[in-house]
Amino acid sequence: MLKIKEIKPKIGFIGSERQSILDDLNFAIKNKLDYYEIQGSGEKIDLELEIIEKAKKITKKNNISLSLHAFHLPISSLTPEISEPALKTAKEEIVLANKIGAKQITIHSGHKDKPENETAVAKNFEIFVKNFKELVKFGKKYRVRVGLENSTKNRAMCIEPRDFLNALNNIKGLKIALDVGHANTIGINPIDYFKQFKDFIINIHIHDNDGSSDQHALIGEGNIDFKGLVRECKNSGYYGPFILEIFPYENVLKSREIFLNIWNQI
């Protein structure tokens, strides 16, 4: 009887800050990580051409796949003087992703200006759809897929599954970057999230919490059912990327070991 070879999951991590990209890549090489997501939190930082070229060579030589996490941008703002520069920055992030060799970008939805005002929220959504349609089209030009990440904050445009259904129904070609920790903080089982959107998911951010806040804890330190999640991923044929959004480096390695142990048990 032929033995079916087990497909290994593609596991990576996200850096703590963009300027540490070369250190992060050295860590990825040393520890044989498959993916590296370039961080984009805080203020926008432009990478020098020399850094971009070095990173591109390193990833190609060591077979490391890249994704880029865009900065948190007010891309759905009702104020054009705010949303238009945000859209421009998001496009610049897509260009950077293309230059450095990243095939996908993770981006948040922006925020509602007045969550209590239905008319304002509807207008926010209209701007969100318009700008993300443009981003998906722009990304296609540069061969970069746009993955919308679920947020935790109640002012964000896309938090719950119904928000993503609305987005996907209105924005052709949009993909999803599922953050299991974020889902857990709003009381939604990440497994249910995965089941509903598995055909659109291109990236899963892995970290744990107890549901009270976005703690970015080690797997097992919170209450997320990672065994159930892994089972669902394997049954659905999703093998990654799984991006460990855990800090510092030593915790990335600890969580990878825990994740692989779960994977191999299922």
UniProtKB/TrEMBL annotation:
Xylose isomerase-like TIM barrel domain ranges (all copies): 43-251
Question: Which Pfam family is one of this chain's hits?
Answer: AP_endonuc_2
| Top-level taxon | Bacteria
InterPro entries assigned: IolE/XylAMocC-like, Xyl_isomerase-like_sf, Xyl_isomerase-like_TIM-brl
Record's protein name: Xylose isomerase-like TIM barrel domain-containing protein
Organism equals Candidatus Kuenenbacteria bacterium CG22_combo_CG10-13_8_21_14_all_39_9
Q: What is the lineage of its organism?
A: Bacteria, Candidatus Kueneniibacteriota
